[in-house]
TrEMBL record:
Species per Swiss-Prot/TrEMBL record: Actinomadura physcomitrii
PANTHER family, alphabetized: SLR8022 PROTEIN
Protein name: LuxR family transcriptional regulator
InterPro entries according to UniProt: RmlC-like_jellyroll, RmlC_Cupin_sf
Top-rank taxon, per record: Bacteria
Matching CDD domains: cupin_HP0902-like
Transmembrane segments: none
Length: 109
Protein backbone atom coordinates (compact mmCIF):
# COMPACT_ATOMS: atom_id res chain seq x y z
CA UNK A 1 0.00 0.00 0.00
CA UNK A 2 1.12 3.54 -0.70
CA UNK A 3 0.08 6.76 1.01
CA UNK A 4 0.32 10.29 -0.36
CA UNK A 5 -0.50 13.54 1.40
CA UNK A 6 -2.45 15.60 -1.11
CA UNK A 7 -2.41 18.54 1.34
CA UNK A 8 1.41 18.56 1.28
CA UNK A 9 1.44 18.15 -2.51
CA UNK A 10 -1.00 21.06 -2.90
CA UNK A 11 1.18 23.34 -0.74
CA UNK A 12 4.29 22.37 -2.71
CA UNK A 13 2.71 22.81 -6.14
CA UNK A 14 1.08 26.13 -5.25
CA UNK A 15 4.58 27.41 -4.35
CA UNK A 16 5.96 26.01 -7.60
CA UNK A 17 3.14 27.61 -9.61
CA UNK A 18 3.75 30.99 -7.94
CA UNK A 19 7.44 30.77 -8.88
CA UNK A 20 6.83 29.60 -12.47
CA UNK A 21 6.54 32.01 -15.38
CA UNK A 22 3.50 30.01 -16.58
CA UNK A 23 1.73 30.31 -13.21
CA UNK A 24 1.15 26.57 -13.03
CA UNK A 25 2.62 23.33 -11.80
CA UNK A 26 1.48 19.73 -12.33
CA UNK A 27 2.48 16.20 -11.46
CA UNK A 28 0.93 12.80 -12.09
CA UNK A 29 0.41 11.38 -8.61
CA UNK A 30 -0.99 8.01 -9.70
CA UNK A 31 -1.05 5.97 -12.88
CA UNK A 32 0.16 7.12 -16.23
CA UNK A 33 0.29 5.82 -19.76
CA UNK A 34 0.59 2.20 -18.64
CA UNK A 35 -2.60 2.41 -16.52
CA UNK A 36 -6.28 2.96 -17.31
CA UNK A 37 -6.57 5.41 -14.40
CA UNK A 38 -4.42 8.54 -14.17
CA UNK A 39 -4.60 11.20 -11.46
CA UNK A 40 -2.76 14.48 -11.90
CA UNK A 41 -2.44 17.30 -9.39
CA UNK A 42 -2.58 20.68 -11.12
CA UNK A 43 -1.89 23.99 -9.35
CA UNK A 44 -2.71 27.33 -11.00
CA UNK A 45 -2.23 30.89 -9.82
CA UNK A 46 -5.22 33.27 -9.98
CA UNK A 47 -6.02 34.25 -13.57
CA UNK A 48 -3.99 31.41 -15.07
CA UNK A 49 -5.76 28.98 -17.38
CA UNK A 50 -5.39 25.79 -19.31
CA UNK A 51 -6.59 26.91 -22.72
CA UNK A 52 -9.26 25.03 -24.59
CA UNK A 53 -8.28 21.45 -25.35
CA UNK A 54 -9.86 18.11 -26.25
CA UNK A 55 -11.47 15.94 -23.62
CA UNK A 56 -9.12 13.17 -22.45
CA UNK A 57 -11.95 10.64 -22.06
CA UNK A 58 -13.94 10.06 -18.88
CA UNK A 59 -12.61 12.63 -16.44
CA UNK A 60 -13.38 14.56 -13.27
CA UNK A 61 -11.83 17.49 -11.45
CA UNK A 62 -11.78 17.52 -7.65
CA UNK A 63 -11.08 21.04 -6.38
CA UNK A 64 -8.63 20.71 -3.50
CA UNK A 65 -7.93 24.41 -2.92
CA UNK A 66 -9.26 27.73 -4.18
CA UNK A 67 -11.77 28.38 -6.95
CA UNK A 68 -11.82 27.39 -10.63
CA UNK A 69 -14.08 27.81 -13.66
CA UNK A 70 -14.51 25.01 -16.19
CA UNK A 71 -15.89 26.14 -19.57
CA UNK A 72 -17.06 24.20 -22.60
CA UNK A 73 -18.82 25.82 -25.52
CA UNK A 74 -21.15 28.40 -24.01
CA UNK A 75 -21.43 26.61 -20.65
CA UNK A 76 -19.45 27.32 -17.48
CA UNK A 77 -19.24 25.60 -14.10
CA UNK A 78 -17.63 27.12 -11.02
CA UNK A 79 -15.99 24.93 -8.42
CA UNK A 80 -14.52 25.64 -5.01
CA UNK A 81 -12.62 23.54 -2.50
CA UNK A 82 -14.45 20.25 -2.00
CA UNK A 83 -16.41 20.38 -5.28
CA UNK A 84 -16.11 17.74 -7.98
CA UNK A 85 -16.72 18.81 -11.58
CA UNK A 86 -17.49 16.26 -14.31
CA UNK A 87 -15.50 17.18 -17.40
CA UNK A 88 -17.74 17.14 -20.47
CA UNK A 89 -16.75 14.93 -23.42
CA UNK A 90 -16.03 18.03 -25.52
CA UNK A 91 -13.41 20.75 -25.90
CA UNK A 92 -13.04 22.64 -22.64
CA UNK A 93 -10.82 25.05 -20.68
CA UNK A 94 -10.00 25.60 -17.02
CA UNK A 95 -9.31 28.94 -15.34
CA UNK A 96 -8.18 29.64 -11.78
CA UNK A 97 -10.52 32.29 -10.35
CA UNK A 98 -8.14 32.41 -7.37
CA UNK A 99 -4.99 30.41 -6.59
CA UNK A 100 -6.21 26.85 -6.96
CA UNK A 101 -5.24 23.19 -6.98
CA UNK A 102 -7.28 20.40 -8.55
CA UNK A 103 -6.98 16.65 -8.86
CA UNK A 104 -7.68 15.61 -12.45
CA UNK A 105 -8.79 11.99 -12.68
CA UNK A 106 -8.90 10.40 -16.13
CA UNK A 107 -9.95 6.88 -17.09
CA UNK A 108 -8.71 5.99 -20.56
CA UNK A 109 -10.42 3.23 -22.51
Amino acid sequence: MQKLSLDAQVRDHLKRAAAAATGRSAETVYGGHEHVLRQTLIALTAGTSLTEHESPGEATLLVLHGRVRLTSGGDAWDGMSGDMLIIPPARHALEAVEDAAVLLTVAKH
